[in-house]
């Protein structure tokens, strides 16, 4: 009599499964790019022993941000999001003047100012300058600033220079 042969069950060899998982883990750790915040890209001027030239008050827009996030523009309280719309007319009024008469925006903070408020204020100031540049380039050349040639962009930069003075934060005393 023939005995019935027992069929062996199909199985997947798992002895090397841990090695494969470990190699995949190492591969993804090595191949993954981690985005690192590099900070604010700003070009700082060279250190100089010379005294800065005097600047008339009509050329200055003094922004002060205190530790609670309140914003003062030339001593008047405004909202953080009103900075752009308040600065634009002042920038536009200085377009036709020589370069030593252009608007300077001085941004000053308190040592305990929230970093986010500082960045938002700086963004508002830059947006005001960028929008004035776009409007000027559109009226002068019929295109937005980014669509202009290098020579045309240079002309727009000379007409609407971005002059922002980052003032040293004031010391907080208790």
Outline:
Helices cover 36% and strands 12% of the residues. By secondary structure, the chain is an alpha/beta fold.
What's the arrangement of secondary structure elements?
Layout: H1 17-31, E1 60-65, E2 71-73, E3 76-78, H2 83-93, E4 104-109, H3 115-141, H4 150-159, E5 164-166
Parallel strand pairs: 1-4, 4-5
Antiparallel strand pairs: 1-2, 2-3
Helix pairs in contact: 2-3, 3-4
Counting H and I runs of at least 4 residues, what is the number of helices? Answer: 4
| Oligomerization state | single chain
Stretches where pLDDT falls below 50 for ≥5 residues?
Answer: none
> How much helical structure, as a percent, in the residues?
25-40%
- Give me the secondary-structure category: alpha/beta
Main pleated sheet: 5 strands, mixed
Quick one: overall form? Answer: elongated
Strand line-up of the largest beta sheet: 3-2-1-4-5
Write the H/E string, N to C.
HEEEHEHHE
**In whole angstroms, how far apart are the ends?**
103 Å
Total beta strands:
5
How large is the radius of gyration? 30 Å
Beta-strand fraction estimate = 5-15%
Mean pLDDT: 85
Task: Pick out its properties.
alpha/beta, five-stranded mixed β-sheet
Question: How is this structure best described in words?
Answer:
With 174 residues, this protein is an alpha/beta fold. It has a domain of 108 residues. The protein has four helices and five strands, in the order H-E-E-E-H-E-H-H-E. It has a five-stranded mixed sheet, covered by helices on one side. Strand 1 and strand 2 form a beta hairpin. The protein is elongated. The protein starts with 16 loop residues before the first helix and ends in an 8-residue tail after the last strand. The model has no long low-confidence stretch (mean pLDDT 85).
